[in-house]
Amino acid sequence: MTMKKALATLLIAAACGSAFAAPKADIVRHKIPNSDFPIALAVTIPPTATIHFISGQVPAVVNKDAPGDSLEAFGDTKTQSETVLKKIKEILQGMKLEMSDVVKMQVFLVGDPAKGGKADTKGFMEAYTQYFGAGAQPPQPNLPARAVVQVAGLSNPGWLVEIEVVAAKK
User: Fold this and answer.
1) 101: helix, strand or coil
2) Is the previous residue joined to 157 through a cis bond, with omega within 30 degrees of 0?
3) Structural domain contains residue 129
4) In 3-state terms, what secondary structure has residue 1?
């Protein structure tokens, strides 16, 4: 085969390649065996998906009369988690994404002085389940892989919560 003929054959094959491509894989959320806890054990993202990294979001002020570096300005862990998750939802919507596209979540909780300095994971979960799992309205079964860690502090002493997410969509 001449070089010219080989190149022509290669170009034709490349142009037709999409007709022979394997079907695009879906994003797969692996459930935790024997559990109804509203997180995924793991999430597999195919190479055909676009991945979006959303920077850590912090709480909104809920009491403008309180000092800007106080818990009173931002509320308890549940309130702060609600405002952070609402911000994340709005950011995603601005990117034409939904909470159901979140595949990974990293949650940073500061110990709540009202809880003896321990992270209020219960308060966080009350907010989280408004967006993920069977308790969400409407139910949202696309669960992210997730970690929740207690940290010594965030950059504002009034903040108890910071959340970053990764979203993916085909």
Assistant:
1) helix
2) no
3) yes
4) coil
Identify the domain containing residue 108 by its residue range: 25-169
How many domains does the chain divide into?
A: 1
Q: What is the C-alpha to C-alpha distance for residues 94 and 34, in angstroms, rounded to an integer?
A: 36
Q: Is residue 18 part of a domain?
A: no
Residues 6+ apart with CB under 8 A from 15: none
Would the CA dihedral through 114, 119, 125, 131 be positive or negative?
positive
Secondary structure tally for the chain: helices H, strands E: 4, 6
pTM, two decimals, is 0.85
97 within a domain of the structure (yes/no): yes
Euclidean distance between CA atoms 161 and 170, whole angstroms: 30
Chain segment 29-54, per-residue pLDDT in tens:
999 999 999 999 999 999 999 999 99
Query: Domain with 66 in it: what CATH number?
Result: 3.30.1330.40
Query: And the tokens for 144?
Result: 């992210």
